[in-house]
Amino acid sequence: MSRKNRNALADRVVRAAEATLTAQGYVSPTDTLVRIGWLDVGAVERWRRGQIDCLERAMQTNPPRILEALKLFQSWGAGKGLSASLTDYLARTPERQALRFSRGGDPAVEVLWRTHWVSQELSEKKRQRLAEKASRAPDLVVIQPLNSEWTCHRCGGTGDLLLMENCGPACLRCVGLDDLEFLPAGNALLSRRVKAKSTRWAVVVRFSRSRRRYERQGLLVEPLALADVKSDLDAPRGG
C-alpha cells in the first residue's frame, strides 16, 4: 500500500473510531469497519447467527487491506491511552460456538479483531460491565414464520417455529429446542424471572409487513422454570 493510500485509510479509521468512542465510550473493529463502509450491518448479523463462516468473507475488501485497517485501529487505541479489552464472540446458535473473523484463522489476526478499546474516563465498574456485556452470548432467535409452508432442511418436517441455519430453516426438534415452552410477551416481570431461571431459552420473533421489521412475540423457556416462577408469583405473601 502506498504512503498516500495508507494515510487516507488511517484518517478514515481514526475518524470512524473517534465517532464511535464518543457515542458509546468504547469501540470495536466491527464498529469501525461498519462506519467506514467496509462491513454491512446485515452481514454482521448473519455472521453472528452462524450463517457466514468468517466475517472477512462478507467483505469486498481484500485481506491485506483489512489487516492494515486492523493494525491502524490497534495503533490508534494504544496511542490514545485507551484500555484494551479482549472480547469473546459466540454465535447466536444453540451450540454457541466461537465465531471466526479471518479467512485464515490466524490467532494473531483473530486477536486484533477481538480487541475492543474502552475509554479511561469510564469508571472501573462501568468498564467491567461493558466487557461482560460484549462477551455475553447473544440471544438465540427463533422465527415464527408468516408462511406456514416451509420445510426443515434437516428432516423435511415443518412446524410453527423455525431457526435459520446456513443451509436453510430448521425445525425445533432438529436443533434440540422442541422441549421448550412458549411464553407470550406481555408480562415483563414473569418473562424476566423465567428467563433468569431458565438455563436454556430463546427469543421468538415474527416479521411485521407493515413495519418491515422483526418484532418480539415472546420467549421459549424451560417448562420447569416457568412453572416454578408462576408458583412463586402466585404464592400468598405473608403480612
The shape is globular
Q: What's the story with the biggest beta sheet? A: 4 strands, mixed
**Secondary structure: helix percent:** 40-55%
The largest beta-sheet arranges its strands as: 4-8-9-7
Instruction: Tell me the domain tally.
Output: 2
Can you tell me about this structure?
The protein has 239 residues and is of the alpha+beta class. The protein folds into two domains: 3-135, no CATH class; 141-234, no CATH class. 40% of the residues lie in helices and 17% in strands. It has eight helices and nine strands. The protein has helices at residues 3-24, 29-35, 41-48, 63-79, 107-114, 124-135, 188-197, 223-234, and strands at residues 26-27, 83-86, 115-118, 141-143, 162-165, 168-171, 181-184, 202-208, 213-221. It has a four-stranded mixed β-sheet. A three-stranded antiparallel β-sheet has the order 1-3-2, with helices on both faces. Strands 5-6 form a two-stranded antiparallel sheet. Helix 1 (3-24) crosses helix 4 (63-79) and helix 7 crosses helix 8. The protein is globular and about 65 Å long. It starts with a helix and ends in a 5-residue tail after the last helix. The relative contact order is 0.10. The model has no long low-confidence stretch (mean pLDDT 90). This is DUF2293 domain-containing protein.
Keywords:
DUF2293 domain-containing protein; 9 strands
Lay out the secondary structure.
Layout: H1 3-24, E1 26-27, H2 29-35, H3 41-48, H4 63-79, E2 83-86, H5 107-114, E3 115-118, H6 124-135, E4 141-143, E5 162-165, E6 168-171, E7 181-184, H7 188-197, E8 202-208, E9 213-221, H8 223-234
Parallel strand pairs: 4-8
Antiparallel strand pairs: 1-3, 2-3, 5-6, 7-9, 8-9
Helix pairs in contact: 1-2, 1-4, 7-8
